[in-house]
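Quick one: structure for this chain?
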Amino acid sequence: MEVDEAICLWILYRRLKKRRGQRRYWVHPILRDRTTLIFNYFRMSIATFDYLENIIENDLRMSENAVRYCISPKERFIVTLSLGYSYRLNDRTVSQIVNDVSDAIWKHMQPIFMPVPTQESWKTIAAQFEEKWHFPNCCGSLDGKHVTIIKPGKTN
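Got it. Here's what it folds into:
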């Protein structure tokens, strides 16, 4: 081996050795962006996910037995949100999980976010509509929906 070849090999060796010791990223982009990725996948923040999961956790807990592994409440909630996309679960299993989780969500969230309206709440809503939109006797609206209203017969 000639001196020029030996020097080239030595320089190449030093460069390769130096690269192995250097990090390409301080934090890998996949790990750095995981909160954004989680939000995009579930369409909610981690805090919202944890809040909802904690509320419905007890209704989704299955009794453990020694014969087989039970799917945890968190996994059941994730499966419902992702519909088994990346969990490779049987259609019937996903269907049952979705039903259980949906029932639990409705049971705990309906009283908070969709309480049964009272006569007083209807009057308050109608007053707010009239004040803001100058539309009297309106008790609510559907966002982004166009509903054709036909005047009842024999009315002016």
